[in-house]
Amino acid sequence: MPQLQRSGVRRRDLLKGLAAAGVGAFTGAGAYGFMYERHHIEITRATLPVSGLSDTLAGLRVGFLTDFHRSQTVSHELIARAVRLLVTEQPDLIVLGGDYVTWGDRNYVKPSAEALAELTAPAGVFAILGNHDDDHDMPAALTARGFTVLRDARTQIRVRNVPLDLVGIRYWTRRVEDLSRLMRGASPNAILLAHTPTRLLEATSLAIPLVISGHTHGGQIVLPGLGALAARRFPVIAGTARRENTTIFVSRGVGTVYVPIRLNCPPEVAVLTLEPITQ
Questions:
Q1: Which residue from 45, 113, 190, 194 puts its CA 20 to 30 A from 128's CA?
Q2: pLDDT tens digits along 3-28
Q3: 129 Cβ partners below 8 Å, 6+ apart?
């Protein structure tokens, strides 16, 4: 009996030690994610195959920034640094994917737009709204900076003397018939700007060639062996995927929400090179 008691003590001590080590590792990872990784912006350069894209538009470079979440924990400098990195890449076109602030905080609406002010591209800068953005102040602030805000709207621009349609939808627009109405009359060179990648299902049903999204933050906290627990409900969490004739790119975004930590999921500036594919 005494020997069993000693064994029990050793077992309890071992479990306590393992628990302490786990807490220490989690605390250390959290500190790393707070102090370093959420500030360490990466540039992602990806080539996207696009069905039906005109050969004339081959090599078109689209700069993409999203999910800024300007707030008390996401600084002007972080967003301004992402802007500088993208401008240095000299994309042909720039699109912004929404969530400029967190929970519609009006204190940061104008500061968020100011942080984006240096964005410029030959074909223009186009923006949509996210679920954290209001429908008046934020689009007004972006428009004042010279950006075109698409709210359930389509606009056609000409790039290399070829029409290119940009369709921007609100976060809450999800019915296939609403999306179909916006796509009616669009050229084969069409890009859907949808804040959430859950719109991939509707886009695939309508054979929309390309969808560009954010919203997931790439999971923001990605645990070894477990992945991005907070983003598992999305069809694509981050990066490039293809469903039937539709290609989608989902960005990890720039800022953070809920907790100011990124783990195995650094903020991202995306430069997307479009290439045509034949059916």
A1: 45
A2: 434 444 454 543 443 333 343 444 45
A3: 98, 135, 138, 139, 149, 151, 170, 171, 195
